[in-house]
Amino acid sequence: MKKGKVFIFMGVSSTGKTSIGTEVAKRLKMKFIDGDDLHPRANILKMSQGIPLNDEDRVPWLERINDAAFSLEQKNENGIIVCSALKKSYRDLIRQGNQNISFIFLHGDFDLVLQRMELRKGHFMKADMLKSQFDTLEIPQENESDVIFVDISRSFEDVIYDCVENIEKLL
């Protein structure tokens, strides 16, 4: 197994990034980092008031994600980091200076994601902010060859299986 490979679980809020990422990391015995824990205080306060983040707000957060990925690579550890990575420019910032990153794009349609969001408890993201995330989302294109698409409309176990299978091919 090659070491130092980082997988960024990306997508809009409530696509299962944390729950799927945690389970995949457990099954593959990889380090797990929840990108939400890397948000600066100002971002957390802003989101808790229902105010969407802008690009300027996201830069320090994305730099922290980039640093975490760099740390894993440098320590020759495999890991999963959760980060929405909604725009190509965000993904490019995460890629910057990192050699061994792949993105797992967890995607589903608006109605499915809204239904899941409404079932969540204790998360600072508000359901009315979901539209903002979908509006911001730049779906990865063919020129982003390091992105793997995973459809979340299937069962949790099927999504986990798909993620594990795709990751194992790259390790």
UniProtKB/TrEMBL annotation:
It is an enzyme of class 2 (transferase). Its EC number is 2.7.1.12. One of its GO terms (molecular function) is gluconokinase activity. It comes from the Bacteria. Keywords: ATP-binding, Gluconate utilization, Kinase, Nucleotide-binding, Transferase. It catalyses: D-gluconate + ATP = 6-phospho-D-gluconate + ADP + H(+). GO terms for cellular component: cytoplasm. CDD domains: GntK. GO terms for biological process: D-gluconate metabolic process. Pathway: Carbohydrate acid metabolism. Belongs to the gluconokinase GntK/GntV family. This is Gluconokinase. It comes from Bisgaardia hudsonensis. The lineage of its organism: Bacteria, Pseudomonadati, Pseudomonadota, Gammaproteobacteria, Pasteurellales.
